[in-house]
Amino acid sequence: MKYIAILSIGILAYLLFKKLWSNKNWISPKKPFPGNWRNILIQKVSFYNSLTAEEKTRFEYKVQEFLLNCRITGIHTEVDDTDRVLVAASAIIPVFEFPNWKYTNLFEVLLYPNSFNDKFETQAEDARILGMVGTGYMEGKMILSKPALLHGFSNESDKKNTAIHEFVHLIDKMDGKIDGLPSILMEKQYSIPWLDLISKKIEEIYEEKSDINPYGATNKAEFFAVISEYFFERPKLLANAHPELYQLLEEIFNQNMSQRKLLRAKHSISRNSPCPCGSGLKFKKCCGKQHY
Questions:
Q1: Where does it sit, as one GO cellular component term (predicted)?
Q2: Does the CA dihedral 138-176-11-92 come out positive or negative?
């Protein structure tokens, strides 16, 4: 018992040190948000376009903060600003209404050129994984298929977004385990109805009486990630098809997604167009000046 007590104290001390170290080394943005990054958000991220001017400023700050504290590394693939901004947007969307949120359990996102298997091979026949939260020696890392990342923001009607899915797993993991019960976001009074509803909805998937992605029936953790994709991509449809589920997700994420107008620009902004930030200047003289 004595040794167990000493070990427990050691683990607690390590976790406390880790938390203090993370906070001490956390980098906050000091420079203005890059104009070309804003253009990427406008063109690619419907969630961003649904925000008020004040909310957009807050979203941009969190995107910039995320990228200052988490590396985006390409593995046999190039990484550009679009990739970086979309990874960051995926991270911020689920926690947008938690102003002090920090992903202290993540320091690097690895982008792969396509899907992979559990040995991280991309050319094998069983290379079907699109995203993964690292464990063991990969702790603190996330792996994403670059095509899946881009597809998540190019098709926003299919109720799927791989990167958001993986960040929801990471949120779930903040309390120590990925189990579909994100206690760090959920008040205790929601736990029992949430777990009961998950069981009911998984049963509906098995009975083929649901429009929820069948992968959600794998287990409670996957259900939480899958239904979160649905919540952020097709909130009005979710609210109509699964009102109880929608209501609990609204409580978990502290966001009324069904009231947002998820619109994305369908055309590129020309150099001489009015800048979408509302400055009154032409795009080339404002947010687009870093392009030209």
A1: cytosol
A2: positive
Read off the pLDDT of residues 222-281 as tens digits, 9 standing for 90 and up: 999 999 999 999 999 999 999 999 999 999 999 999 888 876 544 455 667 666 555 677
Q: Give kind and range of the element (H or E) at residue 74.
A: strand 71-74
Q: What is the pLDDT of residue 189?
A: 78
What whole-number distance in Å separates Cα of residue 85 and Cα of residue 20?
27
Long-range contacts of 186-193 (CB under 8 A, 24+ apart): 186/251, 186/252, 187/251, 190/248, 190/251, 190/252, 193/248
CA separation (Å) from 160 to 12, 141, 152, 166, 242? 38, 22, 6, 11, 17
SS3 of 119-185: the string is: CCCCCCCCCCECEEECCHHHCCEEEEEHHHHHHHHHCCCCCCCHHHHHHHHHHHHCCCCCCCCCCCC
Q: Which long-range contacts (CB under 8 A, 24 or more apart) does 281-288 make?
A: 283/39, 286/35, 287/35, 287/36, 287/38, 287/39, 288/35, 288/36, 288/39
Give the residue from 196, 159, 163 showing the smallest Cα distance to 83: 163
CATH code of 28-261, in short, is: 3.40.390.10
